[in-house]
Amino acid sequence: MADVFSRWKEGLARTSQAAFGRLAGVFGATEIKAETWDELEALLIQADLGLETTAEVIDSLRAGVRTRGLRRAADLRALLEAELRARLDAPPALEFPARPTVILLVGVNGSGKTTTAAKLGRRFADEGRRVLLVAADTFRAAAVDQLQVWAERLGLPVVAGQMGADPGAAVFNGIQSAVAREMDVVLVDTAGRLHTRYNLMEELKKVHRVAGKALAGAPHAVWLVLDATTGQNALAQARAFKEAVGVTGVILAKLDTSARGGMAFAIRKELGLPILFAGLGEKPEDLTPFDPDAFVKGVLAD
Amino acid sequence: MFETLTGRLTQIFDQLRRRGKLSEADVDAAMREVRLALLEADVHYSVVKAFIARVRERAVGAEVSKALNPGQQVIKIVHEELIATLGEPAPLNLSGPKPRLLMLVGLQGSGKTTAAGKLARHLRQRGERVYLVAADPYRPAAVEQLRTLGAQLDLPVYFESGLQPPELTARAFDKAAKGGYTVVIVDTAGRSQLDEALMNELQAIVRRVPPSEVLLVVDAMIGQEALHVAEGFRQAVPLTGLMMTKMDGDARGGAAISIRAVTGVPIKFLGTGEKLDALEVYNPERLASRILGMGDVLGLIEKAEAAFDEQQARKQAERLSKGEFTLADWLEMMQSSKKMGPLSQMVEMLPGELGRAARNIDPREMERSVRHAEAIIRSMTPAERRNPDILNASRRRRIAAGSGTQVQDVNRLIKQFREVQRLMKTVQKTGGRNLTRLFG
Ligand SMILES: Nc1nc2c(ncn2[C@@H]2O[C@H](COP(=O)(O)OP(=O)(O)OP(=O)(O)O)[C@@H](O)[C@H]2O)c(=O)[nH]1
Ligand SMILES: Nc1nc2c(ncn2[C@@H]2O[C@H](COP(=O)(O)OP(=O)(O)O)[C@@H](O)[C@H]2O)c(=O)[nH]1
Ligand SMILES: [Mg+2]
Ligand SMILES: [Mg+2]
């Protein structure tokens, strides 16, 4: 736990170098003034919360200030933190309903799927589970090699697809092999694809179906890996992937960078998807369960 | 939200319904909408603020041209300012002694390695002899990724394990010089601008071999952080240009404006796909329209003005605004749309969601179905065109026979018409009154 917390802190320490006294501007003043609200809006929009969420948060804070008769800007800060925190949930306990439990990682190009597959593999293996990785990105140059290198470093078995071949075949073989070898978890790394590409989304649906043919009930979870640097497009991505393959949870990668990841709020609200993990670096250990308190602090960090 | 910028502006100004100069109140109302549009497109908050102030100054008191309504006039000004802010596309700087060093930098996963492959292909086509350098020893299989692209292009890729990127780049440069290569493209590892050690590494590379070009590669989907990212890279290395990748998606790419604002470097290329030929030279008008979420609305407005009989369009618009849209209107629209040019070309210009949806349709298929639709509507009596509810089975049979189609075709058309009618109503509600958005 201490470890988890220090990681968040490390991540946040970096983040804090980027922004200079953002909160000082908002809460430095002693009284709540008209400008306080403008500055608050600026702060939230700059953290990628988007117009709608920002407006909702501000409306709710205004109401709070009114009903409680608050005057001091300092009181607003606690209110803001509580408001943002209330819009997020702690991640639900992970379930491994089957043996093997098949988890599909999906997302747009370059969001962090392959690295996340490695991180999750390490994590589940550390928990004593037998993990198999499936390299089903048969499209991008050396994507299979990328996951193979991770598998080797982590000492995990991997089933790799043939470059240029049908990704469904790799998934089928991977799951079959996992069943034969009595694995607990299968992590499937898929090729990145923009959610607007009809053919590629159809291909992903097919991969999903093939998983179910290899093992009834699979995939048991579909996790969307989102780059925390993403702006307003994140919601469209999440919506499209959810519609296509029934995403069940979100992983926010690259939260160690200066990105705040504010679009998580809209995704939580509009799509009801839980945020499961946060990616906090490029090493296999740089993944922690999503911590809403730390996340809110990161959004507001100066 | 964006899709309706034109519509909302039009609505604001329709209430005023007058010509002459744009008043302060007009412009303020419009600027509120423009501001929302830019923020939705991920333009940085502070950059939006400055931009709006500039446009506002120019728009207040501007003469409204006869051909345009005030809403269109404001859009035109906004659009022009955006184009000016985005700037002209600039070519690669390939002057100076050979070989020239071209370096790609950016965040993790932004598209640098792919861009290296694309630029290598592009430059080779222009007769350059290209040498690739894999200067990302960190990410697993990053070198292998570039090697694969090099093999596809039949171009050499330099890498030596154990060497740090600055040393590696210097050696690669010497080899390229000896081998008579004219361009050296260096693919660097992804990094956050906050990572001091890795930013120092970039500086060390630049000190060892001064590059002709340092391109910042940025994902079009990036949010507000684009400003700080660009600022961080600019402080570390002498950026010479920007490449926006993943433009084949539906992200509006407002980051381009923020980055231009803090770095001043020109936009040089756009990446529009995963394959190596998906490289485009950027066009300011198109990008401006995209950021505003309007498709090529101006082009569409121009064409519409030329093709539509103003009087007729207005009559139609008025009926529409009362929620009356008949098959006869639809027929007229289809005919006017044909005057505007081939449908495939129109589709290119449709804004946002509609355009995206439409691009999935085969234009030839679309033209065929428009011809069918026309024939069917022409075979109806005026009463039927006004009120398709009276179309019973025998009427439908008569119409099918008259238009040389099947009863199913007639049924389908009626169904489609209901859809369009419903769409018209929604557009109406959201304030969109732009008839030209509804072709097909
Ligand atoms: N759709 C689309 N995908 C792209 C484009 N450019 C790159 N990609 C994809 O984005 C992903 C990341 O691209 P890379 O070229 O590996 O990015 P990078 O910046 O070298 O990544 P790192 O080296 O890991 O930091 C890959 O899946 C590419 O295929 C583009 O213009 N459009
Ligand atoms: N800083 C940081 N970089 C990450 C993180 N996750 C992935 N990356 C990097 O982002 C880039 C793209 O990741 P990758 O796993 O290849 O993405 P994929 O294309 O979705 O499979 C790589 O350079 C990764 O090292 C993270 O949590 N933090
Ligand atoms: Mg990958
Ligand atoms: Mg790379």
What labels describe this entry?
heterodimer, A: alpha/beta, 12 helices, 14% strand, B: 440 residues, Four Helix Bundle (Hemerythrin (Met), subunit A), eight-stranded mixed beta sheet, 20 helices, 56% helix, 9% strand, disordered C terminus, binds guanosine-5'-triphosphate, binds guanosine-5'-diphosphate, binds magnesium ion
Give a written overview of the molecule.
The complex is a heterodimer of chains A (302) and B (440). Chain A is α/β, with parallel strands linked by helices. Helix content of chain A is 52%, strand content 14%. Chain A has 12 helices and 8 strands. An 8-stranded mixed beta sheet of chain A has the order 3-2-4-1-5-6-7-8, sandwiched between helices. Chain B is of the alpha/beta class. Chain B has 3 domains: 2-86, SRP54, nucleotide-binding domain (Four Helix Bundle (Hemerythrin (Met), subunit A), Up-down Bundle), CATH 1.20.120.140; 100-281, 3-Layer(aba) Sandwich (Rossmann fold); 297-438, Orthogonal Bundle (434 Repressor (Amino-terminal Domain)), CATH 1.10.260. Chain B contains 20 helices and 8 strands. In chain B, strands 3-2-4-1-5-6-7-8 form an 8-stranded mixed beta sheet, sandwiched between helices. In chain B, α2 (24-40) packs antiparallel against α3 (45-59). Chains A and B meet through α1, α3, α7 and α10 of A and α2, α6 and α9 of B. One magnesium ion (MG) binds next to α5 of chain B. Guanosine-5'-diphosphate sits between chains A (107, 109-115, 192, 225, 253-254, 256-257, 279-282, 286) and B (108-109, 139, 190, 192).
